[in-house]
Amino acid sequence: MTRVFHEQGILFGYRHPQSSATACVLSLFQMTNETLNIWTHLLPFWFFTWRFVTALYVTDIWNDSYSWPLFVYMGTSCVYPLASSCAHTFNSMSKNARHICYFLDYGAVNLFSLGSAIAYSAYSIPNVMVNTTFHDYYVPLAVLNTIISTGLSCYSRFLEIQKPGLCKMLRVLAFAYPYTWDSLPIFYRLFLLSGDGAQNEAALYHQKHTAMTLLASFFYSAHLPERLAPGRFDYIGHSHQLFHVCVILATHLQMEAIVLDKTLRREWLLANSRPLSFPQIAGAVLLCLIFSLSNIIYFSAALYRIPEPELHKKET
Fold it and tell me: CA–CA separation, 239 vs 237, rounded Å?
């Protein structure tokens, strides 16, 4: 097994590093160390898709512009689990295919980050921040964050073998700082405000979402429990599976919080906040897609420009 396919603390259960697409799909129904990584995001994809379609069905989408940010958020919450499950399904086709699968995965995660920012801006931002300079620049800077984060996370894959410590630090940073920016309004509500009326009913979900996200970050960074008992958690219970479960639970809690904020604060927000227009929402998503895909294409092409000996040293 080449180092590019090897994960810390995982000794067994690897698929052939040059599997066919058919073999990758069939591996969904075989027990490998990726099987639960796939299913822990594939099943939630269908759950979030069901919630998204149900919300669309009961809403007059063309005339209810107040709901547009929610639909963008719910749509992106379907994209990232699907991209993740596809990445874990097809990442054993080749070394370059593995990189490209995860490049697309990182792009989807950052698209979801932007969807979260759009929803927070529309429904969850504290009253005292509404229509401030921070509110005006909150979503545009979230777009910039997604572009930088996608590039940084893709670049980190070229360092994993040669500089694993730097690689891990860059990748954690690439996901942590957009999350931190997106969550600033929530942190303000949770830690600096008290008795904020109807918002308190959603605050409990925001608290649980924050706690679950921190737990997911711990599993992603610590490689526990498999680091303490290599080979014992190869198929069930290793950190990436636990990370996936925590991320999905965090998204579910976040969605509940956003829906509550949207419902409970509707009257006040419609009276006092400047809603995001369709061009603003579509422009933000389009910019994110264009620049993130440009990042992915650039780094994918770089895989084929690096001479083979150097690629063995740098790739992951």
Answer: 7
